[in-house]
Amino acid sequence: MNERSLHDDATAASGTTATPAGAGATVRLTTAQALVRYLAAQRVATEDGSSVEPLFGGVFAIFGHGNVAGLGEALYQHRDALPTLRAHNEQAMAHSAIAFAKAHFRRRMMAVTTSIGPGATNLLTAAALAHVNRLPVLLLPGDIFVSRAPDPVLQQLEDFGDGGVSANDAFKPLSRYFDRIVHPAQLLSALPRAIRVLTDAALCGPVTLALPQDVQAQAWDFPADFFAPRVVRPYAPAPRVDDIDAACARLAAAKRPLIVAGGGVLYSRAADALQRFAAAHGVPVAETQAGKSSLAWNDPLNAGALGVTGSPAANALAHDADCVLAIGTRLQDFTTGSNTLFTQADVIAINANGFDALKHRGFVVQADARLALAALSGPLQGWHTERAWTARAHKLAAGWRDTVGTLTHAPQRDAVLPYEGDVIGAVQRSAPHSATDDIVVCAAGTLPADLHKLWRAGRPGAYHVEYGYSCMGYEIAGGLGVKLARPEREVIVLLGDGSYLMMNSEIASSVMLGLKLIVVVLDNRGFGCINRLQQACGGAPFNNLLDDCAHGPEGVPRVDFAAHARALGAQAEHARNLAELEAALQRARAATHTYVISIDTDPARSTDDGGWWWEVAVPEVSSREAVRAARAQYDAQLAARGEAPATAHAPAHAPAPAPAPAAKPGPHD
């Protein structure tokens, strides 16, 4: 459909007439019709730059009171230009939309619309997730009547001290831009601002436009040229010359530099530039969770994952580095080992967002990763780090690759339950030639730690783990969004039983939409990861594994995940061991629609290699000796970081922080 016919169809469908084309031409539309038509007109260059395609891949919608009459009718009119996809849970569909944008490296995105009340507030967790991960999503929750004629309307939250507040005000701290549309004309400024935030590397994150239901239905004469097709050019800041000069001087003086590759490398499409820069100057590279797949797993300078869930190779190099070039990372505590991993290093932080670069006392270069690497390459031409440092990096990286091969190909004994590393190995062995084309999706529990260390990502985007917010329930919904963005790729969702039980409804959505996923459920009978953290902090096993929870006289349930998945429309089976898992994976790869495989796993095991200390506060006072001992160790770590021990029993001269078994935040599997 061309843009002229889109204009004509919208006018005819709305039962309105437009003034003649030209200067001052107008078209009468409702607020909802205008909003949808504007979104449908936005374009962006394709990945190869040869043409343009819609900026918005579509709108996920669950209709209800507050959006079905106004926005629902508008979406119906434009369903060919802006597809509407129905989901089963508001939070989940927002996760899918966010994953779609992440899989497109923020070049394309989606919108999400809900009713007022619980439909809207179900989006809050997803809004926070998008904010923390700097990912674009347009949230369009229904809102109460501006007229207040039916006040209070069904599902309205009344603030006793402010009559203008609705439940949607909860989105304000969770949005990079928030607006409540109280008159149709407001769209003329609100929509361009929304698009700018969604496509600006320095501002990127969730945008919320709250839509009062009476305003959605209100008509106004909009300027016709407001709906002309527009090619959006995402904004990324170029570096300042003086910042590049200073960064070059710091790098040239370094003898043992390390590059930390974050998500910004992928979002700026700087993977090739990163590989060339590292190879030209002999600088090893370590990857964050968001940055993993920036460099091919078998690149000789790829030392692997960094930090609390890091490889021994990357962490050893980080501990000894005298300069860290942090590219596109906000240096979160899992990356820095709660600010103990590379305290000795001079940190140069390159980030499109200046706030994100202002971490770890680093020198800030506010710039797009690709543009910054290009700017650094000229002045540093001919510079090479110490040959011994590069040789050490090669040796450590090669040794870690060998270890990964051993860990993921360990022989399985029938009497021993497999653990995450075993399952990861089975998944990668099941690929026809290699796992290069697979995209793994995960979010929470032990799996992100083992995936960060063990998954072999052969190309940018092959590793899709949401770990900024580490949100249980993201996995299956996220996999749906990834498949929507990359339908030609095999999308493998790995998750624990806890995450599956928390949010599994989008299995039915994937079946309905014909978007095939392979879902592998690791059933360790509870929240195994947080159970280990609980005990590492001296706590007794309590309320995490199902056997340690309160339960009735009939005991805890034994969930048949395969039967449940079949009830949602998927093909499914339970694998009793790794051999059966590998055979089931072959059937899943050959299947034409979503296939779920469950397997029992060990809640106590994880990959011991690597890791680093992560700060989790331990109670100062407890009647349990195990807690008091854990507190003493915690105080020793604080003292090593330069903080005075909070309790008298901490040693006067604590040892330097040492690698510790990785632990993950939140109530994870």
UniProtKB/TrEMBL annotation:
Residues 59-155 form the Thiamine pyrophosphate enzyme N-terminal TPP-binding domain. It is an enzyme of class 3 (hydrolase). Gene3D superfamilies: 3.40.50.970, TPP-binding domain (3.40.50.1220). One of its GO terms (molecular function) is 3D-(3,5/4)-trihydroxycyclohexane-1,2-dione hydrolase activity. Keywords: Hydrolase, Thiamine pyrophosphate. CDD domains: TPP_IolD (cd02003), TPP_PYR_POX_like (cd07035). Residues 1-21, 639-669 are annotated as: Disordered. It holds the Pfam family TPP_enzyme_N. SUPFAM superfamilies: DHS-like NAD/FAD-binding domain, Thiamin diphosphate-binding fold (THDP-binding). The keyword rRNA-binding does not apply. Residues 11-21, 639-653 have a biased composition (Low complexity). Residues 444-598 form the Thiamine pyrophosphate enzyme TPP-binding domain. Its EC number is 3.7.1.22. Signal peptide: none annotated. Residues 654-669 have a biased composition (Pro residues). Residues 1-10 have a biased composition (Basic and acidic residues). It comes from the Bacteria. Residues 244-376 form the Thiamine pyrophosphate enzyme central domain. Belongs to the TPP enzyme family. This is 3D-(3,5/4)-trihydroxycyclohexane-1,2-dione acylhydrolase (Decyclizing). It comes from Paraburkholderia sejongensis. The gene is iolD.
